[in-house]
Amino acid sequence: MSTTHKIVLIKKYAKDKEGYLKLRTTKDRKPTYTPLGFKVQVSNWNADKQYVKSKEPNSDRINEKIQEVKAEAQYNTVKKKKEVKGKSFVRYAKKVIQVISQEGTKRSRNNGLNKLRDFLKIKDKDDIAFEDIDTFFVKEYYGYLLENVANSSANEYLTVFKYFLTHADAHGYHSYTISPFRGLKKKKEKRSLPVLKYYEVEKFFGYKPEKEDFYLVQQAFGFMMYASGMRVSDFVTLKWKNFKEINGNYYVEFNMNKTKTLMKTKLTLDALQFLIPFMELYDKSAVNSFRIFEKKQKNMRKKLKEAIDEESQIELRSFSEFKYDIFADLMDKWHTLVEQESKKEERKITLQQLIEGMKRDLIFNEDILLSILGNQIIEFKDKYPEDTVHPMLRDGQSYSEAQNAKQHFNYRLRIMGKECDIKTPVTNHQARHVFAQRLFEAGANFHHVSLALGHSSLEITEHYREKLVTDDAMDVVEEFSRIMTKTI
């Protein structure tokens, strides 16, 4: 009789909302149970796919343990059979892939295995034994990859191949006295990440899409850019319940889909304004109070500009010019000139005071606008907590649907980029590039930028900065010359 292994959730009482994860080993129709040492919420356990959902605390650690326990149990079952040479690498890799819970990871591992099988077909093989994988085989396979795909893809496929061998060694299935990867140096591909230039960003947001779905993608891109370069995978799954208000400040809090890192990003008025179209999908009058106050703010900015223009055009005559008039003309002309200059000076002072007052009012009003719009978003959080902000995934959030949503998003960005005649490729990740690049150029605190991006280490941020090189960065040489000219 065959032996089967499965992770199950066991509750003490039927009404319990929590249960313990155990490995059920069934042999000759008799089950035995081995505790994993984890207690999880029943609602967070996916029995079919054998993993706990990301909402469960320590979900990554629990899922990793599940994979290890199942793989070890499977190995122990196989181990009891007579040890023979010729252990199949492909068959083992398939079993490893089967117990991976994350769909994205499973897909990348499967792609890597398929690429290796393509190489084996060239050598008229369907499989390869572990003991036949040596340094010569690895170098030959890597050479094949470099000839057929880009360096970055070749390195990725090789990493997946190494992952299977490391997994086999860690679980006692097969080990090597000398690593087959010993002495192998990967070829690095030096390429810069494209970043939208200032004028390209301006052109993109100055564009007015005719179709609503394109307009929503444009506004979503703007929010992602101002919300610390949020990834599209995080935005399409973002829900109204992810927004928070703390002491008059507004935040978006979510777990990154890529790393499961908890992010808490403070939102400015600029960021919140990009959410208005999504709020108006529910009710066109949802932000009427904001619109009214915003109109007043625009009128004040217009008046401020007029006052600044008028103040800049008032030129006061110097004392030396008046001395000239004393000797050149009559006293009455002198008094007339003095009176005119006095009125001009009074007007200039009045305008300066008016300008300073309007600037203070504008800053104060910005806080009011933030409060109005922020409170409206918190109302949406209370009314529609489980609704996604973008309607693309409102009816479901499966992995395939999320992938389709990302493709939908990028397709529309590319179309708008072409219609705006923007040379730099416009993709969802540009929101992240622009956010990081502008901060790097402005000399922002490196550690703070790293935290805002959600990077797990400063090394990743440094690697990111090295690649974010644009033509604008070359202008620093000229800037240095201008600085030195002033100081020497």
Automatic annotation (TrEMBL):
Keywords per UniProt: DNA recombination
Domain Tyr recombinase: 188-478
Protein's name according to its UniProt entry: Tyrosine-type recombinase/integrase
Keyword Lyase: no
InterPro entries noted in UniProt: Arm-DNA-bind_5, DNA_brk_join_enz, Integrase-like_cat_sf, Integrase_catalytic, SAM-like_dom, Tyrosine_recombinase_XerCD
Organism: Autumnicola psychrophila
